[in-house]
Amino acid sequence: MSAEREILTWESFGTAARALAQAIADDGYRPDLILSIARGGLFVAGALGYALDVKNLHVMNVEFYTGVNERLDLPVMLPPVPNAVDLSGARVLVADDVADTGATLRLVRDFCADHVADVRSAVVYEKPHSEIKCEYVWRRTGRWIDFPWSARPPVVRAGDGALDA
Predict the structure, then answer these.
(1) Where do the Phosphoribosyltransferase domain residues begin and end (predicted)?
(2) Which of 41, 49, 73, 105 is disulfide-compatible with 37, CB 3.0–4.6 A?
């Protein structure tokens, strides 16, 4: 991994989200619902939901990254898993912050595939080595990305209640 990082500010995120929404609208895609991949995709899905006037947002919790450039062997869906009946016949836009390896997006798209009318993906960043090529991408980079929502350590660590100084 390069020591150089891509830095996304909150202001740049606003620009990125609006540009993604415009690309989706210009393409004529009108999703019935947006399926967010938690956690980073929550921000993207919320912004796209407002910009595309889609109020039907769903969340899928997937664990893959455990640290900077550290990940599990395979992504794992965490409960609650969305009910496939809720997705039935819908045009679904899967939203995430980054398509890095693409494994998380593949897991979510495969989950949707047999239930939905159409599934497409929108991400802020796509890495060149991603096994999934998203329909809507704001920027492509091979660098590690510092997102504004995860650039700083947690205020409280899960399980211990300790505060960072």
Answers:
(1) 6-150
(2) 41
Q: CA distances (Å), 94 to each of 110, 121, 147, in order?
A: 11, 5, 19
Stated pTM of the model: 0.85
In a domain, 109, yes or no: yes
Can you give the CATH number for the domain in which 47 is found?
Answer: 3.40.50.2020
Query: How many domains is the chain partitioned into structurally?
Result: 1
Confidence of residue 1 (pLDDT cuts 50, 70, 90): very low
Q: Using CB atoms within 10 A of its CB, is residue 134 exposed (0-12), middle (13-18) or buried (19+)?
A: buried
146 burial class (0-12, 13-18, 19+ CB within 10 angstroms)? middle
